[in-house]
Amino acid sequence: MKISLNWIRKYVDLPEDLSEKQIAYDLTMRTVEVEDLIDTSLKYHNIVVGKIINVNQHPNADKLKVCTVDCGLDELKEIVCGGLNLYEGQYVAVALPGSSVVWHGEGEPVKIKENKLRGVKSYGMISASEEIYLGDIYKDEPENIMDLGKIEDIKQDELVAGASISDVLNLNDFILDIDNKSLTNRPDLWGHYGVAREIAAIYKLKLKDLLDEQINIQDYKSLPKYKINILEKEKCKRYLALKIENLYVKESPAWLKIALKSVGINPKNAIVDITNYVMLATGQPNHAFDSNQVEGEEIVIRNATKGEKIVLLDDNDLELSTDDLVIADIEEPMCLAGIRGGKKDSVLDSTESIVLEIANFSPNTIRKTEQRFGEKTDSGIRYEKGIDTERIDIALDLSLDLFNKIYPENKITAYGEVTNEHTASSEIDISQDFLDRRIGTKLSEKDIIDTLSILGYQIEVRDKGAYKIDKSIRKDSNGNPIEDKYYHILAPTWRSTGDVSIRDDILGDLARMIGYENFKRKPLPVEFNKAIKQPKEELERRIREYLSFRCNFYEIFTYPWVSDKYINAINSDIEKMVKLATPPSPEQAYLRSTLITGLLESAEKNLRYFNEFNLHEIAEVFEKGKYSPSTDEEILPIQKMMISGISVSNSNEKAFFDIKGVLESMSRYCHMEDFTFKKIDKPSWADENAYLNILSNENIIGSFGLVSLKSLHESGINNPAVAVFEIEMSKLKPFTSRTNKYISLPVFPQVEEDLSIVVDEQIKWKDIHYAIINKCNEVKFKEVYRGKQIPEGKKSIMFTISIGSDKGTLNSKQIDKKMRSIIETLKKLCGAELRS
User: Fold this and answer.
1) With a cut of 70, which residues of the chain have pLDDT below it?
2) Residue 527, in any domain of the structure
3) According to a count of CB atoms within 10 Å of the terminal CB, is the N or C end of the chain lower?
4) CA-CA-CA-CA dihedral for 26, 31, 33, 34, to nearest 10
C-alpha cells in the first residue's frame, strides 16, 4: 500500500526537522514495514518552466517551429517543437537535457539530450502533459503542448522561467511503500487518516479532525427515506445510502487527481474520484450507482440466486452462486457486494444523479467471493480485514464535504440507513504485575495511561483484585496473592474487529510505542536440561542423510496440493482424498494422499534437463478422517509421514534394482529393524510384473517397483524407465541403542565359485539366497538369462559363492564337499538343476 506524506500532513502537523527517512524508519520499528521511500520530485528532475520569447518557422520542416525560450539559464535557448498551440510569451514545460520523458505518452522513459532536428540544434524539449507523466491530471488537445498559463490551479506569479515544474504544480511528495503483509491485522491503517493517527501517536502530536467543519448528519436524516432492505443481516451489519442530484460527469480538480495519482490510482471523473479519495483517506470503501439505473428506487442486500449473472466494471461476466452477496435493485444485481460494481449500474457518462453506498460487510463473505472469482480489488482487500461499523460516519462526512466543494450545486434528496449491529469496543483487564513481568521493566501508571490514550484507548485504574483477573500473579510467603492494581481498558472501535482482543495485544501496543530499542537487554531465562533421546526423530534424520549422501538422491519439497493430472495418472482413490474448500486453482483441489504424485511431477519437469537422476522426499500425506454420525464434531484429516524416492534411468532393470539396493541397505545404515519384500497387493501406479511390497513383521508398510507405462504416459513421461518407493515412516522401528560388533577379516583365503542353475520362473532370487546363505560366507547375484538354450517356463541364474574356513585353507576335497552340499540343498529346496 502506498501512503502520501503530503496527504498525511493534512491531518498531522509534522515538525520541519523530522525527515521523511526518519518517519519511514520509526513506522517500521513501531507499526508497519515500510519497504521503500519514494521521492516523487525525482521523476521531474530537470523539467522546468520555460517562457517562449519568439516562434519561427523551421527552415527544413513545415510542421516544426524553432522557439527561442527563456529556461532560467545564463542565455536563451533554441528548441525545435511541433506543437500546434505555440505563441510568444507562452509559459511551457521544458524538459532540459538530462531529464526523462515518455514520447507522446507511450513506451518507456527516454533521456533527453541536446540534439539536432532536421539540421537545427535543439536544447531540450517543449513537452505535452502526457510526455512528462501528467496526462491523467492535465489533458492537452491533440498535438498541443502544455500551456501553463491557462491552468487555473497555477498562480501566475509562480510562473518564473527556470522554476521546477514539480514546485509550480505541487508535485513534490514522498510516498511510503508499505508491505501489505504487515497490515494484515490492522484494518485501521488501510487509509491515510489511520496512518496519520499512528504517526501522531509515535511522535506525540495532535491528530487533527478529518474535516475542518463537521457535517451535521441530522440535517439529512429528516429527508425522505431511501428504501434499504437487508435480507442477509449477518453478512451486512450496516448500510447507508444517499441520493445526490444535480451532478454531471466532469474532470476532478488537479489537487484531487494529484492525490490519487501519487498513490497509484488513475483518476476517472469527479464522482468516481471522490469515492476513491474517501476510501484512501478513511479506509472505508464506498460506491456510487447511477440512480436512474436503480429500478424501484430500492436497494436490496441479498444472496445471489443460483445461475444469476452480472457483468462487472472490468467486463468480467460472472455466473453467481447462492453464497455470493450482491447489492441489487428490485429486479437484478447491480454490484458484487464490497468487491466491484456492475458495468450497467455504476457511474456512466450520462449520470446526473447517484445513490451513494457506504456499507459494512462480513470479512468472510468478501474473502470467499474474491477467491471464487479471482476478483482482488482495493475495496475487497479492506473489507476482508474487518472494518468497524463506526467508520461509515467519517466516510459519510468526508463524502458530503467533497461533493459540496466539487459540486456546489448538488442536492441530497433522500437518505436511508439500516444498522443491524454496531462494533463494540473490546474490553480487557490487565494487571500491573503482568505488564511488569512480560515487558521486563516497571512502567509507571502515567506512562501506561499516556501511551495507550494517544492510541485511542480508554483506561480506568482499579486498585485491588488484580489476582482475580491474573491467575499467575505473585503470592506472598503464605501463598496468598499480592493485591495489585489493574487496568480496565476499552479499545477503540477501529481496533476492535479482531486486532485487539486479549491482554497480550495491549502489552504489544505498549512495548512497540515505547520502542523495543529502549528496553535494557537481559539474558533469556534459559534452563538447560539433560538431552532427551528421540529415536524416531533421529531415525528420520539418518534416513535423509542416507538417501542424500550415500545413495545420491536429491531431496525435494513439493506442495501438499496435487494436480488432477497426476491423481488420474496413478489412479488414486479420490473418495479418500481431502478436498480443499479454497484450492489454489480448480485443477489442484485435493491434498495428496501419496508422495508418488509429487515425485512424478518433479520427474516430468526435470526430464527437460537431465536423462538420469534420483529424487527423494519425506513429507506428510492426507486422507479423510473417519466420520462418526453420533458426534457432530469436525473431522480432521488423517496425516501420515511418508518416505519416498524415485529413480529415473534408461534401463528398467537398473531403475528397479537401484531402488531395491537402496531399500536393502537402508536398515543397516540407518540403524533400524530390517524389513522384507513380498508380492501381496499391487499399488495403483505399479507395473504388473515388477513390484514388491515392503513388510515389517508381516505387515505391509510400503511398496516399490517400476511405474506402469499408463501412469508414465499420463504423467507426461514417455521414454525413460522409472522406479519409485514409498514407506510409512511411523512403521519403521529404530534400534533403541547402537550396538556394533567386531567381526575380524578372514585369516585364511576364501574360495569363490560361480554357479549357474536352471530353476522354474516362479522361483525368486530371495528363495535361492535364503536356501544356501548359511552354508557359505557370501552369495552374490550376477545375472539372469532366458533364451533358446533354456526350456520354456525356466530361467538360468548365475551367482558367485564365497566359502572358507577359520581353521585353515580349504583343499580341493573340502571345497568339493561344500559345493555338493550347496547343490543338493538347491535341488531339494528350489528344484534347481546345474546348467551344463
Assistant:
1) 467, 483, 627-634, 738-740
2) no
3) C
4) -50
